[in-house]
Structure formats: C-alpha cells, structure tokens
Amino acid sequence: MKTVWEKYSPTELKEVEKFCKNYREFLTLTKTEREFVREAVKLAEKEGFVELGKKKGKLKAGDRIYTVNREKNLCLFVIGEEPLTNGLNILGAHIDSPRLDLKQKPLYEKDGLALLDTHYYGGIKKYQWVARPMALHGVVCKKDGSVVNIEIGEKEDDPVVGISDLLIHLASDQMKKTADVVVTGEALNVLVGSIPSKNEKEEPVKKAILKLLEKKYKMKEEDFLSAEIEVVPAGKARDYGLDSSMILGYGHDDRVCAYTSLRAILAMNKPKRTSCCILVDKEEIGSVGATGMHSKWFEMMVTKLLERQGETSLVALNDTFSNSMMLSSDVSNAFDPNYPEVCDPKNSAYFGCGIVFNKFTGARGKSGSNDANPEYFAKIRNVMEKEKVQFQTCELGAVDVGGGGTIAYILAQLNMEVIDAGIAVQNMHAPYEVVSKGDVYEGYRAYKAFLKKM
Question: Confidence band (pLDDT; 50, 70, 90) for 259?
C-alpha cells in the first residue's frame, strides 16, 4: 500500500501541515478532560454552535447545538434534513488519558522532602512515569462552592515536579525485578519541595508547601479532599522525526480522534442525516460513572432533541438509535519494527497509510469486543473510496498476545451499527505517544465523509 505522502499534492501537503499545527497546539492546551471540553466549546461557539438550553423553539435542519455534562462530556449536533427517527451519524471518542491522580490525602513529608501520593489512572507501565518533568492540572472545589483551577508546570517560568528513580549504581537488586514491579504503584510519589518553613518544628517542608498553595490558590490542606488534580507530562506537543512527519505528545489516546471528530462536525452545514459528536470520560477505567459512556446522559440528550421535534414516545427513541450509525473513534496500535513479534504484519496498521478500521477489538477470543457487521463496513468502504479517503484495517496485536477495548460495544447495545475507526499510535499509554500527521489528516477526512455521506 502506498502511503498518503506519496499521493498528496503540494497543496494538500500544506493543508496537512496547517491542520496538524492546529491539532498540536490544541493537544498542548488540553491535558485533562475539563480542559478539552473548555477549549472545544470555544471552537464550537466560534462556528455558530449554541448551548441546547439557550436554543428556543423547534429544532430545524442546519441548527448547530451542543450540551456539556459536568464539564467532562461534550455532545454536539448538527440537525439534518431528515427526522431524527431516521437515525444519527455519530462520531464517539473519549477524552481521558492514562495519568496519575493525587490521592485525597496526598501531601506528606519524609526525610526532609515534601511529596504527593498518587494513584495511577488507566493501564500504564509504571516505570515509564519516573525521572521526567511532570505538571499538575486540575481543580480544587471548596466548601463555599468556589472552584480554583490548578495548572503548575507548563509556563516557561513555572517549576515542574516529578517522581524520582533509583540510580543505576545502586540498582542491582531492582534490575532483577520484572517490569511490572520494578516501580510499584505506591512508589509513584511526586517530589514537590525541600525548603523548610522557618520556626516550624514538625513537618516544616510540608508546611512550607501548604503556605505556597494558600498564597497562590487560597487553598488549605483539607481542600485536597474535594480536589481533582492530575499529574501529567509537562511541556508542549512537538513535531517528531527529522522530516517532521509525526507528532510527539501526551494524550494522543484518544484526543487525536476526539479532535479530528470535533473538527469534522464543525465542518458540517446542513447534512441529510443529523450529525452527532459525543466526547466522553472514563474510557480508560471502564467507561464508568456519570461521565462515562455507560452513563444514560447521551440517551437523555437524544430524548431532549426528539422532544424538540415533537417526538416523545419510547418508540421514537428506539427507532432513532436502531437507525443510527456510529464510528467509535479510538486509536489503534501502529506497527513498530522494534517489536514485530507482537503483531500479525498482514493485519497491522502502519504509519502514513490512513485511518484504521477495526472490525473488532477486545482480547483473546474477541472478549469484550463489538465485532461489527460486514454489511455495515461494506457501506463505509464504499463511502471512503468515493471520497478518496485512504484507510487500512488492523487487529490490536497478534492473537493471544493482548488486546484492548473501546466504547463501541456500549453504543451497540442501543441496537445501532458501530465500528471502531481511529488513528494509529506508537508508544500507546506512555507519557509521550506518537502519531503520523498524514493519518491525523486522513482521520479528519474520514470522519467528515462519514457524517456527510452515510
């Protein structure tokens, strides 16, 4: 298969660079779910989207609306010419990424150092998260109802924090351990200070840190109880490779699919079928909770849309979902020549070969997968080929080696057609992941073609 780089014209190459520059900058700004929603709403409102509660009257073709759930979910709709009961064309992605979360009682002092206790979020190789610059992002919710945004470690003059590693000179016993225990979860403690507060006999360094937090954020130690602070890699997303053909950054999984899906629906005008983009939280820990895909929030939003078109029956809701089609926009593993043994080369995704369709994900024996219907994928193939979108297919690793899950099976439970479609990633779930710019752009084109032509 030829790569997209061999097919792009000079004009198209400029479009790729422009699109990916915007994505790289967006990725740098959105290291948490709340930050993604906040920046996405800004883009949507610039393109004429209006919050559903502010939109009065009956919904009509061309209306552009959005709704936010607890600052961690975003759903956008462009109302189509056909009634909602004819079905939606849905793009669904998750905006959470593997990271470290501060515990509710995180701050302590030991041997003259102040540290923060963490609990890792999602599947990670714990040893990858040590000895690197880290930043703190999140919110502190106080008893009086006020909320303070936290961001430390991203500005040029900001300090960064991090987790220490054992020096190689003393690591002979550590090096004998298997990778899953060479660094334990309870050892992922973030070093945040070493200067003691004067005239303090007990925990002087911890108290010095608390004074800094109180001065800058008016935050007391007890406020950690109702805080949501994430420890993420510090710094900007960067061009990667001597030819700048790739992007290195934190959180490609799954913000690369979320961003391209977002941009695709922003490009819709008055589609035949209603376009929808749903961006959700908690996929990395099972899509649980009020902001995960297992929540009834999406169904509640569609019910509200139907009501605004005069449909209030359960039959109408069921018809809407049964007639809908979805791309579960989630990343795939890119073939890595350093580790060829974990993949089937014929059924792997390669950098520069376009968007990736996974008929099924899951683990050994397809456990936990959606396993899309071939009739549905045949329709998608037809649209992609007519729109000259380059695509490839893959499985998530060799049989019996591993696997993974997405939100696809959850939406399929509503009796709609669903298939996984995303962008290939190297270093998945590491602090810094890598994608191909060509694949990012083809992902955007694929999502746009799906919304417009299916």
Answer: very high
Burial (CB count within 10 angstroms: exposed 0-12, middle 13-18, buried 19+), residue 360:
middle
Partner residues linked to 425 by β-bridges = 333
CA angle 56-60-66, nearest 5°? 60
Q: What is the rounded distance in angstroms from the CA atom of residue 286 to the CA atom of residue 405?
A: 9
Q: What residues are paired with 236 via a beta bridge?
A: none
Residue 211 CA to residue 215 CA, distance in Å, equals 6
How does pLDDT run across 104-129, given as a tens digit for each residue? 999 999 999 999 999 999 999 999 99
Residue 278, amino acid: I
Phi, psi angle pair for 118, to nearest 5°: -130, 165
Determine the Cα–Cα distance for residues 154 and 169; give it in Å rounded to an integer. Answer: 32
Domains of the chain and any CATH numbers: 4-97+250-453 (3.40.630.10), 99-233 (2.30.250.10)
Would strands 355-358 and 391-393 be described as parallel, antiparallel, or unpaired? parallel
Give dist(CA 117, CA 377) in Å, integer: 46
433-436 β-sheet, strand order: 238-240, 246-249, 433-436
Q: For residues 314 and 194, what is the distance between their CA atoms, to the nearest angstrom?
A: 61
The Cα 416–Cα 376 span in angstroms is: 10
Burial of 62 (0-12, 13-18, 19+ CB in 10 A): middle
**398 against 195, higher pLDDT:** 195
**283, 96 contact by CB (below 8 A):** yes
**Strand duo 50-51 + 64-69: pairing:** parallel
Supply 367's token pair. Answer: 């456990």
Q: pTM for the complete prediction?
A: 0.96
Q: How far apart are CA 181 and CA 176, in angstroms?
A: 10
